[in-house]
Every structure is written in structure tokens, then in C-alpha cells.
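Chain A, query sequence.
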Amino acid sequence: MENLSIDLKTFLEITPHLVCIAGKDGYLKKVNPAVLRKLGYSEEELYSNHIFTFIHPDDVERTGERREELFSGNVLHDFVNRYVTKDGKTLWLEWTSVYLPENEYVLAIAKDITLRKEVEKQVEDEYNKYKSLATHFKKVIEKDKKHIAYELHEELAQLLSVINMDIGWLADQEPGLPQHVKERVEHASAISRQLIKTIQRLAFAISPQMLDDFGLHTTMGWLCNEFSILNNIPCVYEPGYDEKLLSHEMQVDFFRISQDALLYVLDHSEAGAIRIRMEDAVDSIRIRFIDSGAGFTTAHAKKEAGLLSIRERAASIHGVLREPQAIGQGSEMQVLVRKQNSKN
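Chain A, predicted structure.
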């Protein structure tokens, strides 16, 4: 036992981990040399001041709450908080602590994870920088799309409307036209009307002005209705989340994800009917694309290519794609996006 005591003392002397014994009153009773080296305070300073004196002000309340849990009999595992050294630096410490009620002592061991936190911060900063750039480029692209859609709808469609009116005027001015000429005029008029509808549909697909005017749910309903008409596949939209809680950027992204998902279903699935449902999923918003038909029949590699734009769009707004797994039967694809007000 004496040798064990010597070995333990040696361990406490040389270990880089911070080992502390603290009283229930919040004062340190004993620390190993690593605590002195890391924090820079003398033993007298550490023992004569409450522990909260050394904790970063932003972490004091949270640490106090966890200490109360410790006194209730819960062992504290991997609890991270910040301490301020004597020279003003911030250390990130990860604690494992246990309360010994018979002595009213807390035995705590911490490792310094400051370097890891600095690396994480660098990665986070880089991520935020690239995310900001991605958001900027998305906005620029959407702005360009809106301009193209405006030109299509307001310029080209309007010009075709004038042409259609002129064709009608010509037919009215010459009532005695030969039958074959009348047929050609009527055909030209019908084609121009069809072109106007096609241009309007393209303008909507490129940039849905309806999204700004009427909101996401109305626009999604229109998208499903158009998909049903054009492809003879029933498609319904079921709103189950308050669109007022979504930023305009997220509304645009949800619409684009739905566009891509419908194209994917069209290319890779024998769909009998499609339901798109947006719903609350606790800390996330879930968009479900439910295919009740024969399901997906193409090779996995081809499916991967089709899902790329959906995956990337979802990732740009902190979302993840749950890909369809069922083959040869009705299946479901989901996109989960973290709520903007949810905690990290």
C-alpha cells in the first residue's frame, strides 16, 4: 500500500491532467502541480478564492447548475467549461467529476482541450466563410434567374401576345380568306397562345414570382398542380409547418429542393402518386417526398447523380438528405433541415 501511495503521488505530480479536490462550499482543498502550471495561480490564491472566481463569466451559471446535479448523485462526464488564467488567457477544460458525500468533497479530473477548441473554431470560421460565399452566390443566381424570368414573362410573352392579337386582327380584316389560309391563321394563333403558356411556365420554373407574392405553401400547391397536369401523375402538397417561421432564403431553398425532387422522381421512379409534406420534426423541419407507385428501378450510381443537387441544396441550409432505399416498390425520400432558432 505504501508503494501504491508513492506511485499515486508520483502520478499526480507528473500527469498533464488537472486533478482537484474541492469542498461542497466551492473552495479548492487540494490541487496537483498541473493545475498550478496551467492556471498560473499560486496555491494560496487558488485555495482562498471561490472556484467561480477562476471560471469564465459566461460559464459560471452553467457550471453552477451542473455542480448541483453532481451533489444529487450524478457523476459528471465530459463537462466542458472555460477557466481564465492569471495572465488573462482562456483555457477550455473537459471535466470528469464525482461527489463523495461522506467527506463532502468533489474529486475532479480535467484535461486541457484548448488546442482542440481552437482548431474547431478555425474549422467553424472557415465553414462560415464558405457558407457565406455559398449564400452570396445563391442570392446572385436567384437574382439572375428572377431577371431572366422577368424578361421571359414581361418581354417575350408580351411580344407574343401582340403577335397573337395581330393574327386575330388580320383574320377579322379579311373575312373572305381561302379556307386553307384561315386554317393556317388559326394554327398560328393557337401556336402563339401555346408559346405564351410555355413561356409563363418556364418563367415560373426559373424564378417563381408567386413565392414573393403569395408565399411558399401557395407556390408549392401550384408546383404540384402543374406537375400533375404536365406529367399525368397525381401530386399533392400538404403544408404542416408555419411558413412565417421560415426566412425567404429557406423558402426559396425548399422550393428548389422540391423542384429537383420532382424531376428526380420523374427520371428515376415509376410513380403512381406523389405527396409532398412539410412538417415539424422537433428541432428540424422535415420535407417528405412520398411515392406510392412502383418506386425506384434504376441503378444506384444513376440515382446518386440525380440526388446530388438535392443533397447540396439541403447542406447549404444545415440540412441532410435521407435517400430512398426501397427498390421496386413505393418509397419515401426525406430532407431534414435544422430550425433556425434551434440550438447547436
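The two ends are 48 Å apart (CA to CA). The first strand starts at residue 18 and ends at 23.
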